[in-house]
Design a protein that fits this description.
There is one protein chain. The protein has five helices and three strands; from the N terminus they run H-E-H-E-H-H-E-H. It is mainly α and about 120 residues long. It has a three-stranded antiparallel β-sheet. Helix 3 crosses helix 4.
Length: about 120
C-alpha cells in the first residue's frame, strides 16, 4: 500500500463552499417550503447573503418560481435551497405562496377506493 504524500483532499479541490458554511450550520428551514411553493423577489438581495441568494432572487424577479426549480437551476440540494429561501423570506427579500393547500387535497382513502374500483374493471 502506497503512503499518501499529503491530505486526501484540500480546500482548493472543492469548487463551491461547503454546504455547512453556506447555511451557517443551519440544518432545518424556518419555513415549511414544499417542492411546489412559488417564490418571487421583493427587491434586491440584502448585503451579507451568499451569491446563491442573489442568483435565486434574480430567477424570481420576472415571475414566481418553484423552490425545486430554483434549487435545480442554481445547483443546490433541495434541503439547502429550502434553508436559504427561508432566510430570504424571513428578512423580507422573497415572498412565497404554496400552490396547493393541504386541506384542499383529496382524501387518501377515497383515492385508494377509486384505484381499487378501476382495477376491478
Amino acid at each position: 500500500m502506497a503512503a499518501a504524500s499529503g491530505p486526501a483532499w484540500t480546500v482548493e479541490d472543492t469548487e463551491a463552499p461547503s454546504l455547512y458554511v453556506l447555511t451557517g450550520g443551519q440544518t432545518r428551514p424556518t419555513r415549511d417550503l414544499q417542492i411546489e411553493t412559488l417564490l418571487w423577489a421583493e427587491g434586491e438581495p440584502p448585503p451579507g447573503q451568499p451569491p446563491e441568494a442573489a442568483q435565486a432572487m434574480a430567477l424570481c424577479r420576472e415571475q414566481p418560481v418553484a423552490v425545486a426549480e430554483i434549487g435545480a437551476l442554481i445547483g443546490l440540494p433541495f434541503q439547502i435551497t429550502r434553508i436559504l429561501m427561508s432566510r430570504l423570506i424571513d428578512i423580507g427579500a422573497l415572498s412565497a405562496v404554496t400552490a396547493t393547500n393541504a386541506a384542499d387535497l383529496p382524501d387518501i382513502a377515497l383515492l385508494k377506493a377509486l384505484r381499487d374500483g378501476l382495477l376491478k374493471l
